[in-house]
Amino acid sequence: MRKPRDFDAELKSLEDKARDLKARKVQQLGELVISTGADALSAEELAGALIVLAEIKDAGKREAWAKRGAAFFQGRARRTASASELDVGGAQPQPGGAQPASGSAGAE
Fold first, then answer.
1. Average pLDDT score over residue span 54-70
2. What is the rounded radius of gyration, in angstroms, for the C-alpha atoms of the chain?
3. CA of 46: how far to CAs of 6, 15, 62, 78, in Å?
4. What is the distance between the alpha carbons of residues 54 and 103, in angstroms, rounded to a whole number?
5. Does residue 18 surpass a pLDDT of 70?
């Protein structure tokens, strides 16, 4: 006879994994806000901009944004790789690849 499955333990495990994934998503979104310089915006400005972006249905604009986003991530990956290749014991990179914001990068 087979051992009965412990459904409660499996559900608990799945809930723990879901909670961890949600926490990681929130952390990554925060890192993205910081790395793009959007942390210079107020919470109200950032929320308003995101609402407007989510409401736009123009496929052309969304495609252009996707290309620009992909270029941002590719450029950041190249900078991280070249910096780690050239690093000979200097300053350590910040966790998550976040770079300090230089100047004011707000939208006016």
1. 94
2. 20
3. 45, 30, 18, 27
4. 27
5. yes
Same domain, 11 and 30: yes
What is the four-CA torsion angle of 34, 74, 48, 18, rounded to 10 degrees? -80
Q: Which domain holds residue 46?
A: 42-82
Q: Which residue has the tokens 């290749």?
A: 85
Predicted structure pTM score: 0.57
Exposure pattern of 49-77 as b/e (b: 16+ CB <10 Å)?
eeeeeeeeeeeeeeeeeeeeeeeeeeeee
Question: What's residue 1's pLDDT?
Answer: 78
Q: Does the residue 102 lie in any domain?
A: no
pLDDT at 29 over 50: yes
